[in-house]
Specification:
Length: 119
């Protein structure tokens, strides 16, 4: 199964779902708000129990995007699912580390298969 939206595509991988973010940067408020709304709609419609968000196409994120990711994770959890992140470059990973979200609120993996194996 593969779905797509303006900001991401969805793939089914080994019984899990992967959202591959497609926008190079998530720094402007309108893009962040629209992407969060689309991901929330996808989560509500499909209720994935194992979801990986893949950042391989993302160059930069803002602190507002970190807040959006917390809301998305809470939404996944509220629908009975688990969320993991993959493919964060150093520029994207740094805000997660500085805010101490990496390893505590978010489990982050180098690749999607590693994230899936950790479920």
């Amino acid at each position: 199964m593969s779905n797509s939206s303006k900001f991401f595509t969805v793939n089914q991988v080994e019984g899990s779902y992967e959202i591959v973010l497609g926008t190079a940067d998530f720094v402007s408020r309108p893009i962040i708000v629209m992407a969060q709304e689309e991901m929330t709609k996808y989560i509500d419609a499909n209720k994935p129990n194992r979801l990986v968000i893949n950042f391989k196409n993302v160059g930069h994120i803002s602190s507002e995007f970190l807040s959006a990711m917390i809301r998305i994770k809470d939404h996944v959890k509220g629908n009975g699912g688990e969320l993991k992140l993959s493919h964060l470059n150093e520029t994207v990973l740094t805000p997660f580390k500085l805010t101490k979200l990496a390893g505590t609120h978010f489990l982050i993996y180098d690749t999607t298969p590693e994230a899936i194996d950790a479920f």
